[in-house]
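Re: the request from the purification team.
They wanted to know what the chain is likely to look like in 3D before they choose a buffer screen. I agreed to run a prediction and write the result into the notebook, where they can find it.
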Amino acid sequence: MSQNLKENNKQKHQFKESDYCVNCQQKKGCGVLDPTKKYCCACYRKVLEELEWEQLLVSSAQQVLNDYRQRIIKCQCLGSEKPRVKYISSDGNGWTVCERCERMIDSAGHHRVVKNRNNPKFWGLEVNERILCGKCLGKLVEQMPRRKKYLFKEYGKRGYWKG
């Protein structure tokens, strides 16, 4: 009986892929551009722009796209943008790769959110990459605020940076 309870609890808290964008799996769709909430607004906008470029866009969708571009329509899915892992093993642990050196990074479990220590924004860095390994972050340590430099060194002493 306790085995069934554990399995049921594990399934209850598993990541539900249907909650996030089919294309990028990074954001929940708010439904402003895509009423089915299958895509987030950024990805759905790309789809609409491709149709527009091929001149296959109907006039009502063209009006919605123009309203979105002019920010008459505001979406809520852009505000909840968190870096998420790309791969999940069968036991629920996630992993991803560094966006600079492509080193494998172990990450958060079934929630698919990348740990703060691999998020450049956590370290006060303004870079294009969303996920970096410790070695790549170490190269950017001079750009970090003073407190974050100290914390970065503490993380190194604790053994968070491998290899």
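For the purification team: The chain has a mean pLDDT of 77.
Please add any questions underneath this entry.
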